[in-house]
Amino acid sequence: MKNSIKKTGRLMTLGLFALLVFTVPQSALAHCDTLDGPVVTDARTALSQKDITPILKWVSAGDEKVIRAAFAQTLALRQQSPEGKELADMYFFETLVRIHRAGEGAPYTGLKPGVSIDPAIVLTDQALATGSIDKVIEVMTGALAKGIRENFTLAYENQKHANDSVDAGREFVESYVVFTHYVEGLHNLIKADTAHRVKSVATSEGKHGH
After folding, report:
1. Measured in whole angstroms, how far is the alpha carbon of residue 115 from the centre of its chain?
2. Angle of helix 166-207 relative to helix 134-159, nearest 10 degrees?
3. First to last CA, the chain
4. Torsion angle defined by CA atoms of residues 201, 117, 49 and 105, in that order, rounded to the nearest 10 degrees
5. In Å, how far are 14, 17, 21, 56, 122 from 46, measured between CA atoms?
6. What are the tens digits of pLDDT across the range 47-96?
7. Helices marked H in the chain — which ranges?
8. 112: helix, coil or strand?
């Protein structure tokens, strides 16, 4: 029973890590579909100031016409009644977020309350607000170090008994696979992020004629 529980735990660890590796971009984008996320926050500012400028950065030039029309319609509806203002605002928030996410290649599943924001994303917003990245680095590197160390320790301990029996050998192989895939997944994630940033810089320089 004990070995079975350990086995299930390790498989869950691998599964969760795989989920992290392959859904980080979607998770980051999901931050934008919360009611206190940056898109809706800018939308509230734009509506209160009756100035669309703060939100145009969230959509492509091709979608700007649609957003401008929705913005004008929302401003008009807001004048009718307090109830109309609330409904009009929500209509605009949903329109803006839906188009923003479509532009990023992500599905729109409705606006979510702020409590759904991943704690790591909260930290990134705080970093941008305070101008300090130290807390993000501390939390993320601590979590990564903990994951690597735990998977290494299990594989190393199982390795000592790998030749004691077939079952022990299989247990070692399982922990070895989890450990190596964990590290490999992290490395691939870092490489993918680096490649994305290099491409973004090249694209930006091309637009500005550098």
Report:
1. 14
2. 150
3. 63
4. 50
5. 44, 39, 35, 10, 23
6. 999 999 999 999 999 999 999 999 999 999 998 888 788 899 999 999 99
7. 2-30, 38-49, 53-56, 64-78, 82-103, 119-130, 134-159, 166-207
8. strand
In tens, the pLDDT along 128-146 reads 889 999 998 998 888 889 9
Classify residue 81 as left (phi > 0), alpha (psi -120 to 50) or beta: beta
Non-local CB neighbours of 22 within 8 Å, separated by 6+ positions: none
> Does the global pTM surpass 0.85?
no
Tokens 């939100």 locate to 55
Concatenate the DSSP letters of all residues of 171-185 into one string: HHHHHHHHHHHHHHH
Q: How far apart are CA 175 and CA 156, in angstroms?
A: 9
How many other β-carbons are positioned within 10 Å of the β-carbon of residue 178?
Answer: 21
What's the residue count for the chain? Answer: 210
CA nearest neighbour of 27 among 150, 112, 130: 112
Report the C-alpha dihedral over residues 72, 76, 78, 83, rounded to 10 degrees. -120
* Confidence check: pLDDT of 148 > 70: yes
Residue-wise pLDDT for 6-42, tens only, equals: 444 444 444 444 444 333 444 444 467 788 788 999 9
Nearest one of 87, 88, 115 to 30, comparing CA atoms: 115
- How would you classify residue 118: left for phi > 0, otherwise alpha for psi between -120 and 50, otherwise beta? beta
